[in-house]
Amino acid sequence: MILKPGNPNLALYASLSTLLGVCVYFFGLIIATAIAHSATVYGVSSLHLGGNIGIGEAFSMVKGKIRRVINVSIASGLIEILGFILLIIPGLIFLTWYALAIPACLLENLETGDALKRSKKLSEGGRGRIFTIYFLVWILTVAIGALLGVVESVVFKVQRTNVATFSTSYILQVVSQLIVNTLVYPVGTIAMVLVYYDQRVRKEAFDIDHMMLALGSEAPANAPSTPAY
User: Fold this and answer.
1) Per-residue confidence in pLDDT tens, the chain, 229 aa
2) Residue 219 counted as domain residue
3) What domain range is 114 assigned to?
4) From CA 207, how far away is CA 187, in angstroms rounded?
5) What is the count of structural domains for the chain?
6) Does 9 reside within a domain?
7) Is residue 10 part of a domain?
8) Most CB within 10 Å of its CB: which of 11, 25, 43, 221?
């Protein structure tokens, strides 16, 4: 069916098309973000523990974990949004409570509720650092976004009456946001994985446990077995 200008259904068709496009975009964004976030967590974790996995291996470890990561992201996000609605301060508190939920979910194989509880407990004593990291990432995001905005305003003089120019400008804005997410988002993810391990070291002596495990795995090859009495 071809809708001609002046057709009363044209505006409705355009609105529905836009809504569908937005839904598809955000659905794809959620899935892509979950995959990228999970692979980054596994990659940074491996490097931190002395491993050396490749990009392909990191992404292969994500299989079967996407649903769980999406659930944790949505649950923590809704709680944080509710907190921001309640005069902002509670939102900032919730943000620091659940910052370690995804690393805990992936690295300890936890479901949504347990990951949120684990993050809240593990973040105790480190929430000031977590807030500082979020603030610095926000500053970096704003700075890069502003720079790309200046570039866009110089390259394109947007005229609302010119559909082609407006469409091109919109595409550039989407690309700019993608660049910001690509450059900045992994920084926050990497930082939270390192904070996760640092908190485990401070609160649970994780480094000692890890070294003992490593020594235990080497003992059969490097040391004689203890004789039985």
Assistant:
1) 444 555 556 566 666 777 777 777 777 777 877 888 888 898 888 888 887 788 888 888 888 888 888 889 889 888 988 888 887 888 899 999 999 999 999 999 899 999 999 999 999 999 999 999 999 988 988 888 788 777 767 766 554 445 455 556 666 666 777 777 777 888 888 999 999 999 998 888 777 666 566 555 444 444 444 444 3
2) no
3) 18-207
4) 23
5) 1
6) no
7) no
8) 43
Provide CB contacts within 8 A for 137, sequence distance 6+.
184, 187, 188, 191
Which residue type sits at 144?
Answer: I
Q: How many CB atoms lie within 10 A of CB 125?
A: 10
At position 132, the amino acid (one-letter code) is: T
Q: Is 55 within a domain? A: yes
* Residues 17-37: b if buried by 16+ CB within 10 A, e if exposed: eeeeeeeeeeeeeeeebbbbb
**Nearest 5 degrees, angle CA 198-CA 202-CA 208?**
90
Measured between alpha carbons, how far is residue 73 from residues 34, 76, 88, 146, 148 in Å?
8, 5, 19, 27, 28
Distance CA 62, CA 56 (A): 10
